């Protein structure tokens, strides 16, 4: 939902901003823009409609003068996709970029128009630029002008702001959307996400809500919005372990493809030092002694599918578990048993609905646990306790490796909360599953999927079905498929097909069936027979077990190794991701940045 970037330092800022925006492009790609000082000391603003590549072309001969500079990529909310709505927005000496939504924009706009301001765009962000300018004109104190202006604003924002008269100074502020500072030698970066500056520094500081910072090269002072600039303090940074290679495509055509193949590593890093007999998830050990009477998971999209699997794992451990779509849960009456835990799962740790659901749970007195992939994310800061998955930055908008990492973490959580000592076979299976996934992904020759990809591309409809553990996989397969191929696809519980969806089955329809849950296999097979009897084409994904007669219940089967329980979940997920990826690529779609979507949905 938009990405912002700011810089203050001695490098020519334009190339650095453009490459940072390219790494933030998963957050929006309707338009982009940069503002920087030129060699005459004047702020120059360049904006372009479309992807960062369009902007890149426009600024290819520009470097910008060292000092402060800002950049933006837009995912349109207020106002259409057109040049005048692209950021940065300028009002006199003030130029800014904004991620978020100003809720009292209409009131402010009317007031400002009354004061003679002429608006150039339909955006709520432009209002901010005028407010800051009016405050600046009072005493020409740049950071104080921003702070005072924000006192008039209701809503959410991550802001990076320049002032014509203070060429080295960058002012940034946060209330809601993420804003992370990267503290380098003689320079400082500010961005919506870490990959934007990962090549320059791994020293990061996550701005809290309702805070503001004044940055001049490597001098940074941060304060609360209700404190004047004199009392702002130098922040204490933390070092993150992410490798800059994560933010590069390398030999792959798309980040999504690369990230699918990074799944084993994502799982391995997530499991590392957290799983051995008698010592599972040490971070939770103390809290885990007070076993919750029930657990409610809240999440969205792919993270919600991981939560559905988490529910099965916890139920197997004897813990009642519920799974809720975060945007619904946050407005429900929270009738959970006292002492329950509410667990928010979010790759980005910034999804507004998940954060809102967790906040409501906290207010209601429940213990909140976050599961996030991003160190310093809002989820990490706001949950009572947060467990990080270590998938590394995920750039493709369609979530892949983060899913496998979340599932691995949820398996550990179930083992950690189980009243019984962990079953050795499950522990062993979990420890070995990253390697098994790696071997499996390496063993699938790309050409073995060609025919399957073609069939899916040409099918009149693709459905996904599964039972037990295979149902969340079916949902995830369908979500991956629809979000990047733009073809309708739904995931169904296999047993539910006969209650309606089976009416869709006819020749030309393909049903993709993950088959890794052995406990319900016989039932899944009979559901698939019903599909075939009506002319549907069944593409199963699973091992062949015992006497399964293949001619009877499937038309095609993608072979998974007959590995111990739980390993198959990761392998089936990998295949579902690959199939969606390959079909979308065959259709010529923009796989990493599918239309209308943004990676982290920081608005409701
Ligand atoms: O960052 P989060 O895990 O909270 O994101 C939740 C969803 O927005 C996300 O999983 C979305 O559904 C992806 N596009 C799925 O590929």
Can you describe what's shown?
- The protein has 19 helices and 26 strands.
- The N and C termini lie close together (about 10 Å).
- It is globular.
- Strands 3-2-4-1-10-9-11-14 form an eight-stranded antiparallel β-sheet, covered by helices on one side. Strands 5-6-7-8-12-13 form a six-stranded antiparallel β-sheet. Strands 18-17-19-20-21 form a five-stranded parallel β-sheet, with helices on both faces.
- With about 600 residues, the chain is of the alpha/beta class.
- It binds 5-amino-5-deoxy-1-O-phosphono-D-mannitol.
- 5-amino-5-deoxy-1-O-phosphono-D-mannitol (M6R) binds near residues 301, 397, 398 and 479.
- 5-amino-5-deoxy-1-O-phosphono-D-mannitol binds near residues 399 and 479.
Main features:
single chain, 604 residues, alpha/beta, Glutamine Phosphoribosylpyrophosphate, subunit 1, domain 1, Rossmann fold, eight-stranded antiparallel sheet, six-stranded antiparallel sheet, 19 helices, 26 strands, globular, binds 5-amino-5-deoxy-1-O-phosphono-D-mannitol
Helix/strand layout:
Elements: E1 3-9, H1 13-24, E2 31-37, E3 43-49, H2 52-58, E4 67-74, E5 89-91, E6 94-99, H3 105-114, H4 125-139, H5 142-150, E7 157-163, E8 169-175, E9 180-183, E10 188-191, E11 203-206, E12 211-216, E13 219-224, E14 238-239, H6 255-261, H7 263-271, E15 275-276, E16 279-280, H8 285-288, E17 295-299, H9 301-316, E18 321-325, H10 326-329, E19 341-346, H11 352-363, E20 367-372, H12 378-382, E21 385-388, H13 401-417, H14 424-443, H15 450-458, E22 461-466, H16 470-485, E23 489-493, E24 509-514, H17 521-533, E25 537-542, H18 550-553, E26 556-559, H19 567-586
Parallel strand pairs: 17-18, 17-19, 19-20, 20-21, 22-23, 22-24, 24-25, 25-26
Antiparallel strand pairs: 1-4, 1-10, 2-3, 2-4, 5-6, 6-7, 7-8, 8-12, 9-10, 9-11, 11-14, 12-13, 15-16
Helix pairs in contact: 1-2, 3-4, 4-5, 6-19, 7-13, 7-14, 9-13, 9-16, 14-19, 15-19, 16-19
The protein binds 5-amino-5-deoxy-1-O-phosphono-D-mannitol.
The site of 5-amino-5-deoxy-1-O-phosphono-D-mannitol (M6R) has 17 residues, from helix 9 and helix 16.
